[in-house]
Amino acid sequence: MDTYASFYQRSIQDRDAFWAEQAELIDWHVKPKQICDYSQPPFANWFVGGQTNVCHNAVDRHVTSRGDQPALIYVSTETGQEVTYTFAQLSDEVQRMAAIMQSLGVKQGDRVLIYLPMIAEAAFAMLACVRIGAIHSVVFGGFASHSLATRIDDASPVLIISADAGSRGGKVVPYKPLLDEAMTLSQHKPSAVLMVDRGLAPFTSLPARDHDYAALRQQHLNARVPCVWLDAAHPSYTLYTSGTTGKPKGVQRDTAGYTVALAASMQHIFQGQPGEVYFSTSDIGWVVGHSYIIYGPLIAGMATLMYEGLPTRPHGGVWWELVEKYQVTHMFSAPTAVRVLKKQDPALLSTYDISSLKALYLAGEPLDEPTAQWIADGLGKPIIDNYWQTETGWPILTVANGVQTMPSKFGSPGVPMYGFNVKLLDDNTGEELTGAQEKGVVVIEGPLPPGCLQTLWGDDERFVKTYWQSVPGRLVYSTFDWGVRDEDGYFYILGRTDDVINVAGHRLGTREIEESISSHPNVAEVAVVGVADALKGQAAMAFVVAKDASALGDAAARLKLEGEIMKLVDSQLGAVARPSRVLFLSLLPKTRSGKLLRRAIQAVCENRDPGDLTTMDDPTPLQQIKEQLV
Ligand code: PRX
């Protein structure tokens, strides 16, 4: 067997031959004529001339060989619903959904925005889109009207698929009012809305625009909608993520590269086999949900368990109960979720028979050693950290046990995955750092491997400007993460270089939150900073200068304004972006040239030395922060 080092070297040095082999893992209608066209860097065109279809590879090709085996296991501990769809049944549901979408005017290349809770129809909708070449854009259900409206305007969808409500911790969370409000805020007005009515929350319909999914499904029960063979580069989906500016970025993925990349990752990283069961606890609104709830496991012929509910309800062992019941072999989650479980009775980790489980994969935020150790001891299973981004679609750093069994090191996600030519750059000189323990910016030399973003939706220029920089002789993609490498080539991720924060594994842009808070009539200036949090990794804290300071007379008045600001963020962006605290200052800490001292604010909040403050205009605000934190 290949050792990982030579496997990796080949992926970089003999790139096209390497990926030509990986391309054999999927079905093609027309085989590619060229593996990678990188004649216009940084734009990489993978599998040029090839034609395939993501849905064919995820569903149809399995129907003949294992049509009666489970494909989608849907469990909601919120509604008590528990349904297993075989590959044949999933194919039927996807074709019904595709027929409904076509009846509502959706054509190849059109965008379909999916704003749904974790229900099986979300999987049908995503698969139906890629089946007919419509480009889906899933918006996380925790986002509210303003976030939704900016995404509607950027994606300009023909159709929006939504539901009456989600449910969280037994509490109904209505979706339709937020959607209606978003559509009054947006410039673009989609002509059709498809509503999945779960019977959770009554809603009003616009008869000419809103359609009922159940009724249309009845009309299309016997629908047969073939997969459309798509050019390799045809966009499969866009997924919005946060960056430095307030405007979210529409990460755009292709068809063939993504399918090959996921198929390869299922083999080399996850070692998933047909007939096994994959349970990712993420949400379809995030990249992990796209790659490892929906597409990756299904492409590998595995069943995927889609779960609506909390890890602690009806009891703190519910995940392990599901592992036992459905014989889950692979689990994927985030460190925050494990930290939540850590507060439960540890006996719950050994109450159920989890012998089917092979490994637990964790990603999305730094995995701290105590959390990793606690879950490793409690489960007695390998815990595998992996580091990646919405932009890359699959792991950049981890261990590829499917190629060679490799040791994990706590605190490190691992080594660069095949195809990712990972480097560290000195932030000041832009030079490559080759020594051990040297801190630099984690970059990837172009071309990015298959499965990564092609561009940003509708904005090639922003794609180039945001991510790419020239270093002598080549172009590199910035991850915007700090990192170091040890003597064995294992990387350690040390946090973001930009203003993105990571709250409970959710990536948020501080500018978006600042823009929302600024719209409050009594806010003159605001800074939002990510501050270390024992449970969520980071928490967003807001520092506000009020226009009318007399409104802040006493503690009760400050609490009132803090409450108003939190409510405003809830209603515009969603509770996911709500700051954990709002502190009021007479001015923001800035340098004499007017630059906001974010790192100093963060250091004071984390009880660290704020460093050199000689350029600071006025020390009062840092003092005010200290006083309010005690
Ligand atoms: O800062 C890194 C952090 O999350 C960012 C990407 O977030 P997102 O686009 O939501 O994609 C998540 C895909 C799993 C990264 O730039 N991050 C992600 N995984 C890790 C991590 N930080 C440390 N360790 C990780 N394993």
Give an overview in words.
The protein is of the alpha/beta class and 630 residues long. The protein contains 18 helices and 33 strands. The protein has an eight-stranded mixed sheet with strand order 12-11-8-6-7-14-15-25, sandwiched between helices. Strands 5-4-17-16-18-19-20 form a seven-stranded mixed sheet, sandwiched between helices. Strands 23, 24, 26, 27 and 28 form a five-stranded antiparallel sheet that branches. Helix 13 links the parallel strand 19 and strand 20. Helix 3 runs parallel beside helix 10, helix 4 crosses helix 5 and helix 17 runs parallel beside helix 18. It is globular and about 70 Å long. It starts with a helix and ends with a helix. The mean pLDDT is 96.
Offer a few descriptive terms.
single chain, 630 residues, alpha/beta, 18 helices, 33 strands, 31% helix, globular, binds adenosine-5'-monophosphate-propyl ester
Which ions, cofactors or small ligands are bound in this entry? adenosine-5'-monophosphate-propyl ester
Helix content: 25-40%
Residue stretches low in confidence (pLDDT < 50, at least 5 long) are none
Report Rg. 24 Å
The average pLDDT value, as a whole number, equals 96
- The computed structural class is alpha/beta
Largest beta sheet: what is the strand line-up?
12-11-8-6-7-14-15-25
How many beta-strand runs? 33
Portion in beta strands: 25-35%
Q: Indicate the multimeric state.
A: single chain
Sheet having the most strands: 8 strands, mixed
Instruction: Determine the number of helices (DSSP H or I, runs of at least 4 residues).
Output: 18
Give the distance, in angstroms, between the N- and C-terminal Cα atoms. 59 Å
Shape annotation: globular
